[in-house]
């Protein structure tokens, strides 16, 4: 793991993706923080809309890196995963625009945390390790 971290430090593009991943969790923490504060529920949709904008910019960068270095099959599967998450974010925004309740914010936050944990710590981690390997070979 130490070796991976050193390589990440030396690679601007990969370090940049890594920073983005932390930022994605910051948005989800903001969402979690307002669940119990009913006066702040109005901010939930705005947080999600900013997350969509940020995530879109992130996936463009990430997909460019993948397309440059990884086999088509892996790239296509990963692009599909990004699309699934963009759909989930869109659905979440629609739900909250229709019914902005503490219950819905909590359900959506839990669902998004689960989804992004799986995406970032499992799939992105795997592709980043592949990228590092290829870039260093
Ligand atoms: Fe990804
Ligand atoms: Fe990512």
Short description:
The protein has 137 residues and is mostly helical. The protein has five helices and no strands. It has a single domain (2-135), classed as Up-down Bundle (Four Helix Bundle (Hemerythrin (Met), subunit A)).
Supply the CATH architecture.
Answer: Up-down Bundle
One letter per element, helices H and strands E, the order comes to: HHHHH
Task: Tell me the number of helical segments per DSSP (H or I, 4 or more residues long).
Answer: 5
Distance between the termini: 17 Å
The strand count comes to 0
Tell me the strand percentage band: under 5%
Hetero groups: fe (ii) ion
Radius of gyration: 16 Å
Mean of all residue-level pLDDT scores: 93
Give me the CATH fold name: Four Helix Bundle (Hemerythrin (Met), subunit A)
Q: What's the quaternary structure here? A: single chain
Structural class: mainly alpha
How much helical structure, as a percent, in the residues? over 70%
- Describe the main β-sheet briefly: none
The total tally of domains equals: 1
Large-scale geometry? elongated
**Uncertain runs:** none
The CATH class is identified as Mainly Alpha
């Amino acid at each position: 793991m130490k070796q991976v971290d050193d390589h990440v430090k030396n690679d601007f593009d990969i370090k940049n993706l890594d920073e983005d991943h932390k930022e994605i969790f910051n948005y989800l923490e903001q969402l979690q923080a307002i669940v119990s504060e009913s006066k702040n529920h109005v901010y939930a949709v705005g947080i999600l809309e900013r997350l969509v904008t940020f995530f879109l910019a992130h996936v463009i960068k990430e997909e460019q890196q993948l397309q440059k270095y990884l086999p088509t099959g892996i790239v296509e599967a990963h692009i599909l995963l990004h699309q699934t998450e963009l759909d989930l974010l869109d659905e979440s925004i629609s739900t909250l625009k229709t019914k902005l309740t503490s219950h819905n914010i909590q359900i959506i936050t839990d669902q998004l945390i689960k989804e992004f944990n799986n995406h970032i710590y499992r799939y992105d981690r795997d592709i980043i390790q592949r990228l590092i390997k290829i870039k260093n070979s």
